[in-house]
Records
---
Amino acid sequence: AQSVTQLGSHVSVSEGALVLLRCNYSSSVPPYLFWYVQYPNQGLQLLLKYTSAATLVKGINGFEAEFKKSETSFHLTKPSAHMSDAAEYFCAVSGNTGKLIFGQGTTLQVKP
Amino acid sequence: GAVVSQHPSWVICKSGTSVKIECRSLDFQATTMFWYRQFPKQSLMLMATSNEGSKATYEQGVEKDKFLINHASLTLSTLTVTSAHPEDSSFYICSARYGALPSYEQYFGPGTRLTVT
């Protein structure tokens, strides 16, 4: 069985500040991990994914995430927040079946 | 990049009627498509997995007779909400998988907002 827990349903940062969105996973098989972003009334866009290659994964729009097996974590970071980063972020895990299991989501607010 | 479209983007229907939502992969062939449901301010809930040419696999708790899924070609899957009721109002999102495990990509459509009155 697989599950994802996103710590913090709402994160607020100032423009230019570090963004840190937390994700912990549980998986009985080696996981594939993903971060998606969703803007209001839109579908999901893939930011980055981990598929057992490098543990530090770089994605689009300056985001990156580090897979830490010992901590069962896959936190998403961005050094400097931009107003356009305000959105809903979802962490997801997938196993051998290819089905994505999503976390509850984290709303990122960026203050000017 | 790969594009997945959904039609319609929003629909309002009366209680008791049926609504069909289309999901198309525009520039790639998708052997597997997924249908999700999302309530306001909530996460995506997987409803079913649709494989081309075979019956869809529904997640536990999803009524297969209410949510009919057809995957007739490698680029088209449809979700029909039969005898819709207000509690079926939701945001429905499809996704299409490209490639094989483990190096696959899953692309999401823009979603369809269904409101049942």
---
Amino acid sequence: AQSVTQLDSHVSVSEGTPVLLRCNYSSSYSPSLFWYVQHPNKGLQLLLKYTSAATLVKGINGFEAEFKKSETSFHLTKPSAHMSDAAEYFCVVSDGGYQKVTFGTGTKLQVIP
Amino acid sequence: GAVVSQHPSRVICKSGTSVKIECRSLDFQATTMFWYRQFPKQSLMLMATSNEGSKATYEQGVEKDKFLINHASLTLSTLTVTSAHPEDSSFYICSAGTPTLRGGYTFGSGTRLTVV
């Protein structure tokens, strides 16, 4: 069984300040973990993924996430928020292969000018 | 990279009619595709797993006679919402993975269905 918890439903930051979106997971196996972004009325775009290689994963648009097995966490960070980062972010876990995945409930990021 | 095309992006239909949504993997073969549904302000919920050449596997609570899934080829899966009702209005998204991209899923751009 697998599950994922996004600890914050809404996060608000000022433009130019750091972003932290939190995600904790549980998995029976070595998981694959992903972060996706969804802009309003758009599909999902993959930001980054962890698949048992380096624990610090760099993604697109300056985002990165660190896999911490001891904390069962995969938090998403960005040093400096941009207005275009305002969107909904989903943390996703998979038990491997390309079987079905489990989505977190999402975190809506608001960027204040 | 892997690209998944979903069509149409938006559709409005009358109550009682059927709507077909297509999901195509453009540059890879997908033996398995997934269909999700997203209600406003909620996360994505898996509806069914579409397997090429066999019957789809539906999640608990999803009516298989209402949401018909056909995966006739390695690059195409279709979801047909039959006898649509206003409560079927939602955002539907498909995804597909590749054998070389462990756990990597590419999502379609989604279909906004409005039943009036």
---
Amino acid sequence: DTEVTQTPKHLVMGMTNKKSLKCEQHMGHRAMYWYKQKAKKPPELMFVYSYEKLSINESVPSRFSPECPNSSLLNLHLHALQPEDSALYLCASSQDSRQGNEAFFGQGTRLTVV
Amino acid sequence: KNEVEQSPQNLTAQEGEFITINCSYSVGISALHWLQQHPGGGIVSLFMLSSGKKKHGRLIATINIQEKHSSLHITASHPRDSAVYICAVSYIQGAQKLVFGQGTRLTINP
């Protein structure tokens, strides 16, 4: 199993809603990542978890709250988002966070904030 | 100036043509990744290189560490190869992060 599975595939939420994005992998990877991608732009790193601990937060606003309940799961909790947060949110994993490990990406969640 | 530069930004070709996409980077890296993204989102890892050359089916990736340059080649291109191809590097410092190029949008016409 070399898949990273993200749910839901699409999400529309209002600015007052609370929702969560989920990411799951069963490759035994110990590094997991959240990226945000706007249309026709490359992905931008948001968070890195290494061995279930947050190791990088790229100055992401607090309305995005990551959580890593175990080594297979990564969540992104969303609250009070703005329309400009509409984007494709990609999860990725790698064996660990050391140099040069291959990254495996999920299909993404396309988020629309209305 | 982006740390990872790709060229061309857009490429349209006819089915069967040989395709080359280039990637240049500025400082020492631990690995370079070629990724493919189809419309609708998901990213697929095609290659991870730290030296030399790799081949998978019709795809070939090369890297020249001294020149800080990599190329992705597609032989006998097919309309299903139409996608955005992204070069990304992980630096020796800050190895957890991938730094992405802007991508090359490839369209193969039948």
